[in-house]
Task: structure prediction
Amino acid sequence: MIKFLERQRLIKKGLASPKQRRRRSTNDILEALDRSVWGKVIVFAAFIAGLTVLILAGQTQTQEAEKFLTGLLISLTALAQLWINHPRTFARNSRLLLVFGVCLIHLTFLKGVFAMAKSGAIDREFAPLLIPFAFAPLVLSVLLGRNLGIFAAIFVSLWGSVVLSGITPAYFTPAIFMVMSLICGFIAVFVTLEVRRRSRLIRAGIFVGLATWALALMFGVIGPIVWGVFGNINWTLIAMESLATVASGVFTAILVSGILPILESLFQITTDISWLEAADLNHPLLKRMTIEAPGTYHHSLVVANLAEAAAEAIGANPTRARVCAYFHDIGKLIKPDYFSENVDPARNPHNELAPTMSALIIIAHVKEGVDLALKHKLKKQIIDAIAQHHGNSLVWYFYRRALQQQEDARQGGKIMNMREEDIPEVSEASFRYPGPLPQSKECAIISLADAVESASRSLEKITPQRVDQMIHDIFEQRIDDGQLDECGLSLRELKTIAASLKSTLLSMLHSRVAYPKEPAVSEIRPERPSPLPPVTAA
Result:
């Protein structure tokens, strides 16, 4: 309250701006809940309660305790699996809620299909063919990666065999269900290893439908087809069952496609599909950049190409790296003329400014970029890339210029008998970006690609040796300055990134063969005779 009143007083005196920069909202309470042990207990207990309801619904008294204990043991095994093999997912309660919630929805669908068959809403013979085997594996594979997709395929099969025990037809045993569920789940994950278009989900649904059809035919769930009485087979029924099986797979994929945007929004997850949608160069900020800061726009495109190739080389997310690189310098839109790629060589505005003021303008483009990103509601990962792509590195050019001016003032002060305290001090902290350091591999790659692309413009002659030395110097300086301490990149990955940047940069900056100058047309073609008669003197 005191700070607010003090600010209002300064605003009235004209000593403070009434406008405030947008800030990212951080809720410490929600963050603590997302990591708390009690949160994990609540999520797991809620899942066990839901699973118990599904297991015990419609069961006889003699089966209840046995099936409940079996489901509980499978659930504890699943939790231990997440703790051992997926520690990042286990650490966040929101991710645990997503994993167990999707699995519970999957099991609810299983139970619902047979409940509808029991009530007569659908034919009992069709119930096993309408099970959405691929729902949980598809959702978790696309949202959290193939390892969690395989986790879902395994454990929904185990849980499903317990949930459906005693309510399925005699020919559809728990063993048959588990085999079909596992194979269809694995196929769904395999087909969605790289989902860059929503149509890929439909393709996954078709593959799962065909796999379900083949397995159902093999186990006699469809038909069955008895070749000895070939003429007495009900081919119409088999055709209907086959169509229902494939249609179930496609419908599951359509359902997943529709539910993904909701889950992405709720759990703050961005899939490759969303990254590709965000890569549209017609975004208002990028269109502004093409007009107001064309040099920065071209620089961002080149950095995007460099970052995408490097991210792909080390197994990071190339699409995320490309999209974040598009927007990493949008803060330069506020004062585009003060950045080298947009500066008119005839008039450099920094010549009229003190080095501290020039550094202040350069450093401010990070905060201005975050402000614009928040205003246009860009993704959290893009805002992170904007804030982190310079880390807390030093604006070396203007810092060196300030030191030179200080030394000149000190030398001049000796002649003028000036006191040492009258010479202004140069603080290195005033010439450093605010940070934070890059926290992900993609942000670190963008930071390196940005530095390499900028430095490459100063090379007088492009040769592989000079480019290699330039990249080596930049990497060495970033490592010595501690800019890569928190991004998780290994030395082997840095070596791979350097090789990728060199290869991509050389392909962009290659020189052309000096071909001889083409002769004029009149030199290679004889002059055509004029079709008109010569002009004669009167």
Summary: The mean pLDDT is 84. The chain has 22 helices and no strands. The CA atoms of residues 38 and 93 lie 9 Å apart. The chain has two domains: 30-269, 274-395+432-508.
